[in-house]
Each structure stands twice: as C-alpha cells, then as structure tokens.
Amino acid sequence: MQTTSSRRLFVGFSLKKSQIEQISTLRHRLKPLLNNDAKTINNTNLHMTLGFLGPVDPTRYASVIDAIGLMPKSIFNQQFDTLALWQSAQLICLKGQASEPLLAMAQSLTSIAKHHNLFISQHQYTPHISLFRHVSMTDLPILGCMTNLQLTPIHLHLYQSINCSQQINYSVLKSWPLLHEK
C-alpha cells in the first residue's frame, strides 16, 4: 500500500533528443495499427528502465539512495533491435539483449530492493523502452521498417512516477554518473 508520504520510484536511463526523434518516427508508423485505447508514452517520459522499486516511504528513502550510490555503475552500450508486445502488461516496447555491465547493475538493484523490502520483479531483466500502454491486441502489427536503436547513457537516474489527472509524469530525483570499468 502506498501512503501519501511514500514515493513511487524506479531507476533507469534517459534518452538523447536524437533517440527520442527516432522513437517518435517509429511510434507514428505504429499508432494507426493499434487499438483505439492504446496510449502513447509522452516523449518527456521516454527512458530505459533498469528496475522498478515501487512505493518507498521516507524511512527507507535515504538508505535506498545511499545503496544506489554505492552500487557499480559502469558505462555500457545497449542495442534495441526488437519491437515487442507484452500482453500481460498491455505494453509495446523496444527491447534488446542486456549487456554484462547492465546485467550487473540490474542484479545490484534487485539486491537493494530485497534488502529494503521493495518490489522485486518475477521476470528476468530485459532492457526495454516503453512506447505504448493499454495495448489490448493479441499480435504485434508488422512494420515495414527496421527497429534499431543504440543507447550509450552517461548517467543513472532515480525517477519518481507521479500520477496527475489521467497522466503520468516522471521526474528525476537523483542522478549518478556512469564510470568506465577499471
């Protein structure tokens, strides 16, 4: 249960303007093929998810930030080459195979979530960028274009998800630089 003082948090990576433009073109081609209730993710909310933490109350917030600050944060390259429909989440996203540094960060974040009794996904980590929500289709439409996006983030972000009158907004609460591996 989320109290009024808890924050709904997740960790991820922002996108560059050129990547957002590339995704906008892809979404523009895909939108007419989707159900009418499908909602496009706002450009300001586009990100690559590392992990969802769920509601975090003020008593755990500082400790969670400290733990994320201590986890390894290595620079990585991530390829997104597959358009996917996740029916149970009613989501269309770009996804890819996780690089080793990214997997290590995802595992560290899972350990942090366990230690702080936060949300832990039951699914294997898959790097993804959500494009549409509320998709109620059984098959993904076939596009006549390639989906290929390369992401090389330089910061890890702690985001807060805020539900404002039928719209969700994501704001960055804290950022950490990614470092070259030693």
Biggest beta sheet summary: 4 strands, antiparallel
Helical fraction equals: 10-25%
- Residue ranges: pLDDT <50 for 5 or more in a row? none
Strand content: 25-35%
Q: What is the end-to-end distance?
A: 41 Å
Task: Give, in order, the helices and strands.
Answer: EHEEHEEEHEEEE
Number of helices: 3
- The tally of strands reads 10
**C-alpha geometry:** globular
Structural class: alpha+beta
Spell out the key features of this protein.
about 180 residues, alpha+beta, four-stranded antiparallel β-sheet, 3 helices, 10 strands, about 35% strand, globular
Overview of the structural elements:
This protein has 182 residues and is α+β, with helices and mostly antiparallel strands. Helix content is 24%, strand content 35%. It contains three helices and ten strands, in the order βαββαβββαββββ. The chain has helices at residues 17-30, 58-70, 100-115; strands spanning 7-14, 39-40, 47-56, 78-80, 82-86, 91-95, 128-133, 149-151, 155-164, 167-177. The strands form three sheets. Strands 3-1-9-10 form a four-stranded antiparallel beta sheet, covered by helices on one side. A four-stranded antiparallel beta sheet has the order 2-7-6-5, with no helix packed on it. β5 (82-86) and β6 (91-95) form a beta hairpin. The protein is globular and about 45 Å long. The model has no long low-confidence stretch (mean pLDDT 90).
